[in-house]
């Protein structure tokens, strides 16, 4: 059997099914926040795939709230903040909002003592790029220098 390609996936149908299931779960099992969170994340992803970024952002933001009520998984929250930041940066060119979410991701990594220098360097680079797009050169330089420092530590530790 042939694996479905991106063009073969009917996101409209998936969205409809997912929305129906979310409605049912909210009525039948309103305290099953894990299931509600999972469905909310799926809706965010599906909306992103069909380029309905406003709806995608709405569901990603709901997911962050649900995660804080359920598992409080900071890595999952950080990942969602990263995705939201990318939507604001790439698709909506709202750089101030992108910075806000990238910094929330950065705060989470710093709280968890994430020592993945390459990942942190990429995040510093994104924040620097957002500031550059806003003509905030001092802040951009600060984050680019931080990025360079982290990348230098990566290359020296792998040698």
Automatic annotation (TrEMBL):
<protein>
    <recommendedName>
        <fullName>Tetratricopeptide repeat protein</fullName>
    </recommendedName>
</protein>
<dbReference type="InterPro" id="IPR019734">
    <property type="entry name" value="TPR_rpt"/>
</dbReference>
<keyword id="KW-0677">Repeat</keyword>
<dbReference type="Pfam" id="PF13181">
    <property type="entry name" value="TPR_8"/>
</dbReference>
<keyword id="KW-0802">TPR repeat</keyword>
<feature type="repeat" description="TPR">
    <location>
        <begin position="121"/>
        <end position="154"/>
    </location>
</feature>
<dbReference type="Pfam" id="PF13424">
    <property type="entry name" value="TPR_12"/>
</dbReference>
<feature type="coiled-coil region">
    <location>
        <begin position="92"/>
        <end position="119"/>
    </location>
</feature>
<dbReference type="InterPro" id="IPR011990">
    <property type="entry name" value="TPR-like_helical_dom_sf"/>
</dbReference>
<keyword id="KW-0175">Coiled coil</keyword>
């Amino acid at each position: 059997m042939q694996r479905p390609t991106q063009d073969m996936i009917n996101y409209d149908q998936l969205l409809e099914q997912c929305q129906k299931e979310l409605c049912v779960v909210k009525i039948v099992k309103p305290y099953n926040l894990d299931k509600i969170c999972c469905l909310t994340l799926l809706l965010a992803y599906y909306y992103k795939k069909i380029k309905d970024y406003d709806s995608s952002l709405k569901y990603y933001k709901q997911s962050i709230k649900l995660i804080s009520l359920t598992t409080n998984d900071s890595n999952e929250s950080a990942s969602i903040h990263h995705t939201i930041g990318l939507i604001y940066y790439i698709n909506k060119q709202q750089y101030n909002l992108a910075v806000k979410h990238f910094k929330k991701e950065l705060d989470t990594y710093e709280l968890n003592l994430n020592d993945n220098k390459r990942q942190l360097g990429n995040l510093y680079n994104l924040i620097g790029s957002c500031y550059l797009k806003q003509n905030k050169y001092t802040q951009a330089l600060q984050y680019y220098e931080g990025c360079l420092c982290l990348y230098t530590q990566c290359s020296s530790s792998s040698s």
